[in-house]
Amino acid sequence: MWSRRLLQVNSKSSESNLNYPVLIDERLHSLLFSVESADAAPTKQQYEVFENMEKQSQALLARYRELMSKDLPALNEMVNKQNIPALYVPAGK
Prior knowledge:
It is a single chain. By secondary structure, the chain is mainly α. The protein has two helices and no strands. The two termini are 19 Å apart.
């Protein structure tokens, strides 16, 4: 599933990264920490890492947007026909 490449949902403790791969979300947090903790501007390598992760996340974010704009409304229409309340997600999320 596409979301499993963005966020590690199996992590339940700080030791979980020994059993499960570190994914984009955690790598971005680590990069942010390394940039914020320095007394200097981000390095060329930090910019390159960010650009690489941004490229990796674009396909995942495109799939998410498609899911939110097509699949969720289709699901809502299907359950609406059976008088089940619709699912809503606030705009911009």
